[in-house]
From TrEMBL:
<keyword id="KW-0732">Signal</keyword>
<protein>
    <submittedName>
        <fullName>Cell death abnormality protein 1-like isoform X2</fullName>
    </submittedName>
</protein>
<feature type="signal peptide">
    <location>
        <begin position="1"/>
        <end position="22"/>
    </location>
</feature>
<keyword id="KW-0245">EGF-like domain</keyword>
<dbReference type="InterPro" id="IPR008979">
    <property type="entry name" value="Galactose-bd-like_sf"/>
</dbReference>
<dbReference type="InterPro" id="IPR042635">
    <property type="entry name" value="MEGF10/SREC1/2-like"/>
</dbReference>
<dbReference type="GO" id="GO:0005044">
    <property type="term" value="F:scavenger receptor activity"/>
</dbReference>
Length: 379
């Protein structure tokens, strides 16, 4: 209840709530990765998030360093999508004065920083790419303002498009003594100094003071409203399927709590029974509709009549004696003792004196006369 009151109060004062939090280093001791690691054994990726950067020599045990390559990449996983405000990077200096004569400037030039929700930088946003610095002007450490929501902070450098600008190293390396990612530790806090409280079902703009978009299942200016009946998902853009008894679907996922109406299936009841099934939970099997067509997903009726040997709306009743073919529309031959219901073949025999598959021909009767000759009589 308290939380609700607080949220309502915040909404009335343009979302400005008393600040209880400040930016924190969200990267501290979080899992880190780099594209390769120098063989020394002192430069694993985690060393850039160990909180220590008093020794800025590469092998001092406080820096992450890759092997040489055309590209070099390092990243930290914040463990979830967070509001990031800025990224602080302390590059190696070899514990020497950072000026144009410092050996390490050449490796830092051309750096990029991305924020992404996946481990792939291309899925995220580019916050910074150095195209202007020279060994004389590149700062170290540096603060990169990067006000985005994201999970991975990715440091990237490349030496892929020679000739390189003056002062650039020939190969790319990560030589990061510390990367600190400052942002708000809890997802509902955002804005400068995390002083704003984002409405519960909203994704807020990190620097602005507005609700940028509602999370899935909510709508309205501050996202307090659940999607209306029969809509769900992001921006309530999806229509519910056909839940049983007109029950409203879950406003976030669209799933139907109590199953589907007759003829529909799937978690969201948005699929008609298929694979020649119909009825409640698609538990019934269609009869033999003509040409193998599926039956109606609700009532099981065949739309275009029946296949050979069956009749009725659902095409499940077999032909009565004396009938055969599609919809049992054909009559067995007049001299047939009941025919095959599929093809009309008189498989149970013919009336006397008739023969042929359909008993359509007169049979021979062979009569022996007393001379031993045969007399053929027809019919
Ligand atoms: C990360 O995901 C959130 C939604 O969870 C989205 O608002 C944000 O823009 C995404 N960040 C990036 C960098 O794609
Ligand atoms: C980086 O930003 C933080 C907070 O705004 C500030 O305290 C710090 O002095 C800045 N560092 C540099 C190197 O600009
Ligand atoms: C780094 O790659 C970009 C393209 O992604 C290219 O424009 C740039 O010149 C490359 N830098 C170097 C130093 O190779
Ligand atoms: C954020 O904190 C800084 C330093 O404490 C302060 O100067 C600034 O006014 C604060 N900003 C807001 C919006 O509270
Ligand atoms: C929701 O629908 C509107 C209007 O058709 C469209 O502009 C918007 O891009 C859709 N949003 C999503 C998340 O699909
Ligand atoms: C029909 O078959 C497809 C593929 O085998 C399957 O994914 C689907 O669930 C089946 N439909 C029903 C109603 O069982
Ligand atoms: C329906 O068709 C199948 C396959 O063609 C067949 O095996 C089955 O006997 C038929 N059922 C009836 C009642 O004719």
């Amino acid at each position: 209840m308290y939380a609700v009151v607080l949220l309502v109060c915040c909404s009335w004062v343009a979302l400005l709530c008393p600040s209880v939090q400040a930016y924190e280093n969200l990267a501290l001791k979080k899992p880190a990765w780099q594209s390769s690691t120098d063989i020394s054994g002192y430069t694993e990726a985690e060393r850039a998030v160990d909180g220590r950067y008093t020794d800025l020599s590469v092998l001092g045990g406080q820096c992450a360093a890759s092997g040489r390559g055309q590209t070099a990449e390092w990243r930290v996983d914040l463990g979830g999508v967070k509001y990031i405000h800025h990224v602080f990077i302390q590059y190696a200096t070899g514990n020497e004065v950072w000026d144009e004569n410092n050996f390490w400037t050449t490796f830092f030039l051309g750096t990029s920083v991305y924020i992404s929700n996946t481990t792939n930088k291309e899925d995220g946003v580019l916050c910074f790419r150095d195209t202007i610095y020279t060994p004389a002007t590149i700062p170290n450490p540096v603060n990169i303002t990067c006000p985005y929501l994201g999970r991975y902070v990715i440091y990237y450098n490349n030496r892929t498009h020679p000739p390189y600008p003056e002062g650039y190293s020939e190969y790319a390396y990560t030589v990061l003594c510390e990367v600190e990612v400052y942002g708000c530790p809890t997802p509902e806090r955002y804005g400068e100094n995390c002083s704003l409280l984002c409405p519960e079902n909203c994704n807020c703009d990190v620097i602005g003071n507005t609700c940028v978009e509602c999370v899935s299942g909510y709508k309205g200016h501050l996202c307090y409203e659940e999607c209306d009946d029969h809509t769900y998902g992001l921006e309530c853009n999806n229509s519910c399927g056909k839940c049983s008894a007109g029950v409203k679907c879950d406003h976030v996922t669209g799933s139907c709590q109590n199953g589907c109406i007759v003829g529909m299936y799937g978690d969201r009841c948005d699929k008609e029974c298929d694979n020649k099934t119909y009825g409640l939970d698609c538990r019934e099997s269609c009869g033999n509709c003509s040409n193998g067509e599926p039956c109606h997903h609700v009532n099981g009726n065949c739309q275009f009549g029946c296949d050979d040997g069956v009749f009725g709306l659902k095409c499940i009743t077999v032909c009565p004696t004396g009938r055969y073919g599609a919809n049992c529309a054909k009559t067995c031959g007049p001299n047939c003792q009941g025919c095959n219901r599929l093809n009309g073949v008189c498989e149970f025999g013919c009336h006397p004196e008739w023969t042929g598959s359909y008993c359509e021909k007169r049979s021979f009767t062979i009569i022996w006369n007393d001379r031993g000759d045969e007399t053929h009589l027809i019919g």
